[in-house]
Design a protein that fits this description.
20% helix, two-stranded antiparallel sheet, 5 helices
Amino acid sequence: MKIVIVVLVILVGLIAVGWMGLRVRPRPFPPLALQTPALKTVPLPAGLPAPVERFYRQLYGDQVPVIESAVITGRATMSPVGGLKLPARFRFVHQVGQDYRHYFELTWFGRTIGKGNEHYLDGRSRLALPMGLSDEGPQVDQAANLSLWAEYVWVPAVLVTDPRVRWESVDENTALLAVPFGDQLERFVARFDPATGRLQMLEAMRFKDSKSAAKTLWLNESQNWDTVGGQQIPTTGAVTWFDQGRPWAVFTVEDIALNVDVQGLLRAGRK
């Protein structure tokens, strides 16, 4: 009996220590030695759906910055497997409207325990994930393309300056966002907050992985608007698969560099 009690005490202690390690946030990535140059602007396009025009006018006024590249850095909690929420830090690199690289590190007690690298280059995606996992294929390409465009909630000017993007009216607080995917179009439902006019949610049908036979509703909620890198953005993004019912990842943006040279960062770590 005493042995059982001792074992139970040890197990409880180990669980407590493990839980404490998950409460420690990692240090942020070191700042990039890159500075955003002065941004050129273009007039806000005419003919936008009412909630879209309201959102962009209150964000930028009549002139919208032209963004060609972005490096988005911050910290997160992620549940890659089993629902366990792991602290993480991330750096997302974009050649806007074309390519990206997602790099993240999972941590415990602030120490890196796993690294992830996802490249979406020339319309093809390849994931190299912790524990030796990887994935690629047409379904993964579709998912990556949606990620490319959904992440422009942190660089919202892109969604009215890229000539390939189309907005379609639905109602006073909702619009459809059509984005290119090869020679096709994919669509998001964009929902705007009736009180603030801000973009609140992007929804799309997305494949989970290369084995997915059907798409799943994928939700991207924007929260906690603030100024980062001189731009008003939703600093928090919560990403949810509808069938899971709660976010599998919550990203908090802490730094953005715009219109900087990203070619070295974009292809780093590619195998």
